[in-house]
Amino acid sequence: MGLHQDKDEQDLGAPIVSVTLGAPITFLFGGVLRTDKPSRWLLEHGDVVVWGGVSRLYFHGVAPLGKRASHAATGAVRYNLTFRRVVG
Fold this sequence. Notes:
The protein has strands at residues 16-22, 25-29, 39-43, 48-51, 60-62, 78-83. The chain is mainly β. It has one domain (16-83). The strands form two sheets. Strands 4-1-6 form a three-stranded antiparallel sheet, with no helix packed on it. A three-stranded antiparallel sheet has the order 3-2-5, with no helix packed on it. It is globular and about 40 Å long. The mean pLDDT is 93.
């Protein structure tokens, strides 16, 4: 998933919580502008990333899943659970 912002919620005060399950992937965490060079973080099964506050609207995404990426329980598949607070 390319660099994007999670900004559709009415209340941006709550953080984003992302849980990785399965194959490892590289998480990209940029800045306020899409052109800001992102840092790269290897996320493995069970890793949790939380961001909010000033960084809540930073651009983020993941690099393509590597051809050799695999996990004993899921094979070459990665699952991501993303939690955001949505107020109706």
